[in-house]
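Now for my pick.
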Amino acid sequence: MIWFLAIGLISGWLAGMISRGGGFGLWGDLATGVVGSFIGGYLFGFLGITTYGTIGAIIASTAGAIVLLWVIRMFSHVAPAANKKKP
């Protein structure tokens, strides 16, 4: 269980760095990585891609977390901080 959470934390942090340029904090990275691991495992299985070992689990989890972040951003209407107007 602890190993699963550690992989989720690493993959959530990697997904945050790749898709946004920064992490989401400890709990945000953990949640993103754990949910992403389920999505990544399902997608890799659906596509017939097999991963082995810790590195394979991190790759699949990171891919799933990136897909999760992409879907969240697709449905959210929050403007990036750089584009917000100052009062």
The mean pLDDT is 82. The CA atoms of residues 12 and 32 lie 5 Å apart.
